[in-house]
Amino acid sequence: MHVLLIGLGNMGRKYLKKIKELGLKPVLCDIDPEKANVCNECPFYCHIGDVKEDVQKVIIAVDPKDHVKLAREFLEKGIPVLLEKPPALTSKEFEEISGDPNLEISEIELYSEAVKNFPANVEPEEIIIERLNRGSGYINPLWDLAWHDLYILQYLFGEVEAEEVNKKEGVWELKGKVRNAPFTLRVAWKYPKDQRRIWRIKTNNGDILMDFVKEELVYGNYTRYRLYGDKLGEMVSDFLKGVRREGSTKRALNNLKILESLKV
Fold it and tell me: What stretch of H or E contains 207?
């Protein structure tokens, strides 16, 4: 199977590593010709129009402004596409492709042990989320980091209502509600202290702790943590095998509308 990977920046190289771990030799495409040496045994092109291989799957991880344009090239041919987040810069643009059944949006945190083993029928009373990273990404920390937590909130609890956003000393704080329960989401780039990716969910049956760095879920006397594998590898494997995560495009569209409403 020929897998085309478009984009060999930070995230693209992570995808490349996982594809190779699955025993595949992907076809690579990046506008920078010097990226050809990233994988000497992989076919490399600077333009998608030059690709000669019969491509069956496509993973796109480039500047978000080019996501829709590139994805459409393959979706129109019926080729499944895994698109890195954010999938577009506006909801209007994303709606041009969001209904295509061959499109999936990256939701790496849904493969975390904390989410996969989250207890059923939880009614949150309050949710406190921190995603404080040392690195940086595209647009701003809300679009880059809070994006993950917004799709997790949707996946676990349904509709997300954003109410207000503030920024203080480099930390963005978003407040809102899910199922009438308040949540506070704090995100930051280039955080000077240890990075944190933690959820604390208060319920009438006790607190639930989700640690996305340690890959750990703690709920009462129950503790679950990852013993093997990794979430990016699992997501890539599922995509290449045709195992779908239903709802990823809908959650992504909702995320875009939430972020647009905040005007940040």
Answer: strand 206-211
Question: What ranges in the chain are assigned the alpha helix state H?
Answer: 10-21, 67-75, 91-94, 113-116, 141, 147-157, 231-241, 248-262
Q: Look at residue 130 in the predicted model and tell me its pLDDT.
A: 98
Neighbours of 33 (CB within 10 A): 10
Helix (H) or strand (E) holding 164: strand 160-168
Report the length, in residues, of the chain: 264
All residues at 6 or more sequence positions from 37 whose CB lies less than 8 Å from its CB, including other chains: none
Task: Count Cα neighbours of 59 within 13 Å in the Cβ-side half-sphere.
Answer: 27
Q: Which two tokens stand for residue 140?
A: 């701003």
Among residues 142, 151, 255, 127, which one has the least CA distance to residue 188? 142
Domain locations along the chain = 2-109, 110-262
Amino acid at 211: D
Residues of the chain where predicted confidence (pLDDT) is lower than 50: none
For residues 176 and 193, what is the distance between their CA atoms, to the nearest angstrom?
Answer: 26
Return the CATH architecture of domain 110-262: 2-Layer Sandwich (3.30)
Check if the beta carbon of residue 78 is closer than 8 Å to that of residue 98: no
Please report the pLDDT score of residue 227 as a whole number. Answer: 86
Specify the long-range contacts of residues 28-36, CB closer than 8 Å, at least 24 apart: 28/4, 29/4, 29/5, 30/6, 32/8, 35/8
pLDDT score for 263: 82
The closest alpha carbon to 145, from 87, 85, 94, 201, belongs to 85
- Domain 2-109 -> CATH class: alpha beta
Asked whether the bond before 86 is cis by omega within 30 degrees of 0, the reply is: yes
